[in-house]
Amino acid sequence: MAKIVFCEDEIMIQKLLRVILRSANHELYIASDGAEGLELIERVRPDLIFTDIAMPVCNGYELADAVKAQPHLAHIPIIFVSARAQSSELKEGYRHGAVSYIVKPFGAADLHEKIALFCNQKLPHP
Amino acid sequence: MNRDSDEIAKSASEEYTYSGYTSAVTLPPQREALTERDYRVLFEILPQGILCQDRAGRIVMANPAAQQILGLSLDQLRGRTVFDKNWQLIREDGLPFPISDHPAIQALRSGEPAPPVLMGIFNPREHAYRWIQVSAVPQIRPGEDAPSLIYTVFHDQTQHKERQDLLRASEQRARARVAELEAAFQAIAEHVVIYDRYGHVLQTSEGMRKLLDIEQASNFMQKSLHDRSSTVSIRGEDGYPLPEEQWPVRRILNGEVLRDATAVDFIVRRPDGSDCQISVNGAPMLDAAGQITGAVAIFQDVTERRNLERRTQRSLDALLAMVEAMVREQQESEPPDDEDLAVSGAPQTPLETQPATHSIRRRLAELPSRLLDCQRVAILMVDTHTDILQPMVIVGSSPEHELHWRNSLQGARLGNLLGDAKLVARLRAGEELSLDIAHPLFRDQPSYKLVTPILNGSVLSGVLLLDYGASQPNCTPYELTTIHAIAELAALLLERARAQHERDRALVELKAAQDELEYANKRKSDLVSLVSHEFRTALTGIQGFSELMRDETLSMMEMKEFATDIHADARRLVRMITEMLDLERVDVGRMQLNLSWLELNAIIINVTGHISSLTTRHAIRPQLASALPVLLGDYEKLTLVVSNLLQNAVKYSPNGGEIIVSSYIEGHMVHVSVRDYGVGIFPADLERIFERYAHVDMNSLRSIEETGLSLPIVREIVQLHGGQVWAESVVGKGSIFHFTVRFTDSRL
């Protein structure tokens, strides 16, 4: 049972997420852009953050930077979601503090795997 | 003795003997006086002819000698008078001898002995004239005052006279000969001097005196060899004084022959201080025994020739130095690096490149001022197709002059410069022209130019202009040769410049092609990544939902719902692919129009109807022209244009509202506009939305997702129809999208 924030602007994918995770007993919070995401994270204090990179207003990297800048949020693992699989993007992501990566199109299995991996190993609270 | 014989003895160097007869009469010692018989004997044997004539001039007596000389017998003689015409007396000059001059007559008249006279007398026996010297002595009987007898005595001078005549003739011939030789001597163009053994001048031609500029009256020629040589400060070819044994005349007198290859040059100074260089040919004169009796020397003034040779040598050296410099520069210069081109961005101006090349050109153009008399030189390139001139290097009298001259020549056509198209043909044929081409600043003054073609094989690649200013060029063969040599070198330089120019241009073109390729590659890869991004996003839904359908147990309603979602995503994908392909075609410029006659209003109405059915919140209102002309266009693509614009209008008015579509005629275009009252577009984006992702980044992805890939395609289609598409907008108030299509021009 984990609290997950997912930042994704595509409506279709938002729906998919809800459907995939509805049976998994996790709390899922969805934001449509980075700013909304930040608010959500601040409010909810999730255990795991998934974020798309290409988003209006504030993109994924900016969101990650903002989260890492907050001492009380910095511990939350961030996983980027992107349609590009180039190594340069991966590196960029890790530079912004990501712990992992998901490539679109992804399936239920990918999500569950990542959640299990990062939520069962709870990072120590600073 | 007579006068003639005196002259002979003195004037000729030969000796002549005077043959005459001297008779001495010796009286026998025992006799006190000669008897009559003795006189008679004398009378008979004397070789001189004696005639005795009476007072009337009749011959009474003649001795044998007289008979022999006159060729007449005693009887024939007796009775003849001195006046007798039969004597046929003539003078030396051949004219008849005036009888009054006859000594006999004179003696008769004067009573005194008459001096001897030479006359010619006809000898009938020999049938020839004999020359006799005649004198007469009168005999006056005591008591009388007039002579009673005249003794005429004559010597036969015939032989003597003949010899004398011969002598005179040969003397005359000799004189004539000498005169001929003398004339020939004087007529020789070279200057000849004849010396004796010691170097004294025996004979010299007029020219020699002129050559050394020596006055006629001066006694220069009388001086000794040593004095003469010192006076003119004789020096060798190199300008250093010659020791005496090296003096050419001394060498000849020592037996050396100086001739052609061994001829010697020396330098002398004239009285006015100027030097001249003289070449000597000469040989010693030998007598029969082989001893040197003198010398003959021929001198030639070679000052001019040597000067010319020196100048030519200097020109040659200068030209050779130029060629060497050019070769060296060719070897040393590297082709320009790509970095150079990249750094400067634009290609280097082809004719003003490396300093080394520039200075070589300058030096070549400065040669005419060093070797000839021309300070203003221009070397021009001529374009083989257009005959347009391009100055390569200009040397003028001042920087301003050079600038004006350059400006007047740059870009001018050769025919205009020469003033006559026929002259161009002559120039192409290799002829150099001497023309008056006015300077742009000074149009009234004549400005003569020598125009020399610079030929590359048979092609005119350039022109060498030599500006002689106000004086007409008057080139010696030497100068023309130098000019041609310079033209040849200029041809080489032009060739090199052209080759370099070509290479630079090729490099630039290559670089540009490279850049374009890189750019295209980058855009392609950007496009590819954009595409994959889009596709992946669209596929996520398809994959995700189908997975769910596969793995989970779902209600029928959910199944239907998920299937609908999959379908929607799939459709989206298809649309994206189509647009992608169109954009690809647009990128590559391969979009083709399928032309037919159509009416735009019809299209608008069709599309409007279709889109109106998709949305309930929007009201699409047409305001169309009552009649639009038919135009030639692609029905499908124009439908796409209208459709895209209307869909965008819907998208940009998320809260619904009015959308007005208008069409009207504007000049020779049909103008269509789509107006919405939606959110509007930022000014910065108004142009960017039509661009074919010149620069793809994260931000533009969003706007592209909003507007789709369509607007660039819309622009391409409209432009292919000869029109424009653009947008106006006020943020928050709405936007108007315009496009125009040409209808009068059937050419598309």
Describe the 3D structure.
The complex is a heterodimer of chains A (126) and B (748). Chain A has helices spanning 11-21, 34-44, 60-69, 87-95, 108-120; strands at 3-7, 27-31, 48-52, 78-82, 100-103. Chain A has 126 residues and is of the alpha/beta class. The longest helix of chain A has 13 residues, at 108-120. In chain B, the strands form five sheets. Chain B has a six-stranded antiparallel β-sheet, with helices on both faces. A five-stranded antiparallel β-sheet of chain B has the order 2-1-5-4-3, with helices on both faces. In chain B, strands 13-12-16-15-14 form a five-stranded antiparallel β-sheet, sandwiched between helices. The longest helix of chain B is centred in the C-terminal third of the chain and has 75 residues, at 477-551. Chain B contains 22 helices and 23 strands.
Sketch the topology of chain A as an H/E string, one letter per element: EHEHEHEHEH
The major beta sheet of chain B can be summarized as: 6 strands, antiparallel
List the quaternary state of the chains.
heterodimer
Strand order in the largest sheet of chain B: 7-6-11-10-9-8
In which range does the helix fraction of chain B lie? 40-55%
Low-confidence stretches of chain A: 121-126
Instruction: Sum up the overall morphology of chain A in one term.
Output: globular
**Helicity range of chain A:** 40-55%
Task: Give me the secondary-structure category of chain A.
Answer: alpha/beta
Mean pLDDT of chain B, nearest integer? 80
Overall mean pLDDT of chain A: 84
Terminal residue distance of chain A: 21 Å
Strand line-up in the sheet with most strands of chain A: 2-1-3-4-5
Q: Give the termini separation of chain B.
A: 136 Å
Strand portion of chain A: 15-25%
Low-confidence sequence ranges of chain B: 1-12, 336-353, 694-707
Report the portion of residues of chain B in β strands: 15-25%
